[in-house]
Amino acid sequence: MTRLVFIGPPGAGKGTQAERLIRERGLLHISTGDLLRNAIKAQSALGVQAKAAVDSGRLVPDEVVIGLVEEGLENAVGRAGYILDGFPRTVAQASALEAHLAEKNLPLDHVMLFDIPLELLEARIKSRSEQSLEAGGSSRSDDNPEVLKRRVEEFIRATAQLSPFYEQRGLLRRIDARQDVEAVAAAIASTIGG
């Protein structure tokens, strides 16, 4: 079983690489954004708490996000493994995840940090938006320079302490996300084996 966490700013290529691993290795993609949307739509107990936070403009409390991720991890049973995307975002969340996985005797294998400079992110987001518009679609609401800048700043602030947390545990793997899709995929494959 392969157990991975993908960490990186928006536009770093996490989604593209996750899709490859899902297709090629049968991994389950556990996205906290998807978990939150699904729980809110289903009006589960955690979903009701999440909706209250979202509606009031507050961050969804850690205990709600952790509960949703723990539920999501149950879906990985019997699978080849999983990729956690968008979680953890804080050391508190990372510690809770570590404790949950230790209980199950299923520790993480690798935490992939997608390293990429801000100016390249801006170029990628602009290109993604243009391609979407050319294909007759609409650009994503977060595909503009101001929103990107805020999201990158939030990423840096929220995840700055995660790197040392996972480095101390020998789990952090830095991926040079400036490379093309194939080179990044090869770097990930080299790290996780197989």
Automatic annotation (TrEMBL):
Q: Which UniProt keywords apply?
A: ATP-binding, Cytoplasm, Kinase, Nucleotide biosynthesis, Nucleotide-binding, Transferase
**Is Transferase included in the keywords of this UniProt record?**
yes
Q: What's a Pfam family this protein contains? A: ADK
Q: In which pathway does it act?
A: Purine metabolism; AMP biosynthesis via salvage pathway; AMP from ADP: step 1/1
**Which GO MF terms are attached to this record?**
AMP kinase activity; ATP binding
SUPFAM superfamilies linked to this entry: P-loop containing nucleoside triphosphate hydrolases
List positions binding AMP.
32, 37, 58-60, 86-89, 93, 140, 151
User: Which parts of the sequence are annotated with region: NMP?
Assistant: 31-60
Q: Which reaction does it catalyse?
A: AMP + ATP = 2 ADP
- Entry GO terms, CC: cytoplasm
- Gene Ontology BP term (one): AMP salvage
Q: What is its EC number?
A: 2.7.4.3
Instruction: Identify which top EC class this enzyme belongs to.
Output: transferase
**Where would you find this protein in the cell?**
Cytoplasm
Which residues does the annotation say bind ATP? 11-16, 128, 179
Description of its domains: Consists of three domains, a large central CORE domain and two small peripheral domains, NMPbind and LID, which undergo movements during catalysis. The LID domain closes over the site of phosphoryl transfer upon ATP binding. Assembling and dissambling the active center during each catalytic cycle provides an effective means to prevent ATP hydrolysis.
Family that this chain belongs to: Belongs to the adenylate kinase family.
Please describe the quaternary structure of this protein. Answer: Monomer.
In terms of NCBIfam families, this protein maps to: adk, PRK00279.1-3, PRK14527.1, PRK14531.1, PRK14532.1
**Physiological role:** Catalyzes the reversible transfer of the terminal phosphate group between ATP and AMP. Plays an important role in cellular energy homeostasis and in adenine nucleotide metabolism.
Q: What is this protein called?
A: Adenylate kinase
Source species of the chain:
Rhizobium giardinii
